[in-house]
Amino acid sequence: MLYQAELGDTDFITGDYLAEVNIAENAQAHAAGKHPGWEKTAWDGIEQTIDLLNEKRIKVVVNGGAHNPKGLAEKVHELVLGKGYDLKVAYVSGDNLMEEMKDIREKGLPPHLDSDNSEVTVADHTLDVLKSDKPIVSANVYLGAREIVKGLEEGADIIIAGRVADASPVIGAAWYWYSWRETDFDALAGALIAGHLIECSGYVTGSNFAGFYEYPLDDLYDITFGIAEVEKDGTCVITKHEARKGFVTEDTVKCQFLYELQGNVYLNSDVKAILDEVQVKAEGKNRVRLWGVKGKPPPPTTKLAIFYQAGYQSEIVVNATGYATSEKFDLWERMIKFGLKQKGILDRFDFLEFQRIGMPESDPKSQLRSTSYCRIFAESGDPNVNLGLASLLADFAMQHYSGFHSTMDHRTAIPKPYLSFYPAIWSQSKLKTAINLLDPGETRTLMTTPPPKSEEIRRRESYETASPVDLRSFGSMTRARLGDIVLARSGDKGGNANIGFFIPTSLPSSYPQSSPLYAESWDWLRSFLTMPKLKEMFGESWNDSFFMERVEFEGIMAVHFVVYGVLGRGVSGSSRLDAFAKGMGDWLRDVEVEVPVRFIEGRARGKAVAGRYAGDA
Fold it and tell me: C-alpha 198: how far from its chain's center?
């Protein structure tokens, strides 16, 4: 926050501090008086930056208030008064629905987020939230920007929100700046995507970037975050301050655009963004324009994140080296299951999985290269069941496969309480939302209303490519990794994962956009990467309970998938090692497929040029 204020001109500093589980993790501690309920880093940023905020008259809108936006706003208000500054502080209220959830077992559970799609199978234990021994610890709806706009109109300089949607601070800033109407849906949708592009700190300036390996590694850390220049029609230019490291390119923008999407419609409480015609184009160094987003009325509902005490988790990781690794892990799994059955607890787990991680290197050059892991992941409602699993480490301490070893620390084998996630939808008409302005000696509370116009959510589009090109027309093929041709970005939405693949345009090794290979590579990607092909690439990781959707964004040469159910219950309740699907795109880029030889040769020439460039640099 300090760098954004210090290194150049900005009108607003916005901040998204919340992953889905943040509020829940601190809710119980806050209720017990052991945690302030808000995100400490939000306070740190404001405290460090307050002098510049006052001097430059930069407005701040953040959702770092988390479970207690009032508390953080009051603390910031005290700071402002202590400094003698003329800065008005406000906070958003109305996202916390714990009171409404008290009678959930009598009145019924709100609909699941994916309940409108009969082909989606929800994970086992999804309805455990209804059990009396699984108390709810937090329930927060994702608010839009209406309260933020009202606060800015009333003169607020610093607005602290709780669970507003990630992009809502940016929408609110632009909405206020241009005095948009509630029905200026195209402009609002553009601001929504601008907010989406910069909500993840450094993700648009080089962090978590699939093509990082073609850039100097020292350019990829200690970076400044992205800036969105939002124009009156909602079009945006993504840029950054030049004073520090990082970079904004067409490819970093495309990666972040594709992150955590669920198809061609991006939902927010104030607007639906229709993404089919999105386009991206560089306008200069560290300046990339995005346009083509259309807007429609928002849905009548918004997302509701319910977290509850689900039980206990434990994890055991053991190592095997080299020869007969597969048989070693076979023996380990049989032994542990025998011990669990002997104790009478084998069938008492909610979830028990033996996961094999990595493969030993052939003809290894070191023991580390010959070592892989077996991870036991267990969940149950009774900590004694998990303790029974942990006790087997002692019971079988001297009964194991050859070369058995593990880390020195087995604390993860001891059961720890965990929270699980139930994603729901909630009617916006039921909300009681407000902006609260802290004036000296009093608080003014101004109630807000839901959007005046809404549209029911329709079934998401899903389709294979129109007019696919015969893959044989691309000439001779060779086995290569998909990532030799395309970049990708993946992420999570509860129990679902999204993966977007696209043809790069700004890597040093990219095909020149004037080259025939550039257009041909898109024809190949959209024709090759079908839903059956992605299922095939999933290999052993595919489960027939998953459901898949596919759309295309031709303007950025991207194919986008959503795989429903692949993350189980999602968030802290997922058994996957990569519980947020951050690495799913890179895994699939590493899968070998049939690729046209001339595409590989074209990229190889580009890489050679890039290598010479890097050497000169």
Answer: 13
C-alpha span between 567 and 564 (Å, rounded): 8
At position 319, the amino acid (one-letter code) is N
**How many folded domains does the chain comprise?**
3
Give the residue numbers spanning the domain of 515: 471-616
pLDDT score of 606: 54
Provide the 10 A C-beta neighbour count for residue 241: 19
State whether 158 and 269 are in the same domain: yes
200-to-225, 418, 491 alpha-carbon distances in Å:
9, 25, 12
Q: Residue 112: how many CB atoms within 10 A of its CB?
A: 18
Specify the pLDDT at position 182: 96
Domain assignment present for 460: no
* Of the candidates 560, 539, 548, the residue with the CA atom closest to the CA atom of residue 488: 560
Confidence band, pLDDT 50/70/90 cuts, at residue 612: very low
* Rounded CA separation 335/331 (Å): 6
Q: What is the CA radius of gyration of the chain?
A: 26
pLDDT in tens, 519-528: 999 999 999 9
210: nearest Cα among 574, 582, 606, 478? 582
- Tokens found for residue 427: 């009617």
Residue 549 has which token pair? 């959707």
Token pair belonging to 99: 């009171």
Q: Which pLDDT score is estimated for 123? A: 83
pLDDT at residue 25, as a whole number? 87
Task: Give CA–CA dist 229/5, Å, rounded.
Answer: 15
Q: What is the pLDDT of residues 246-279, one digit of tens each?
A: 999 999 999 999 999 989 999 999 999 999 999 9
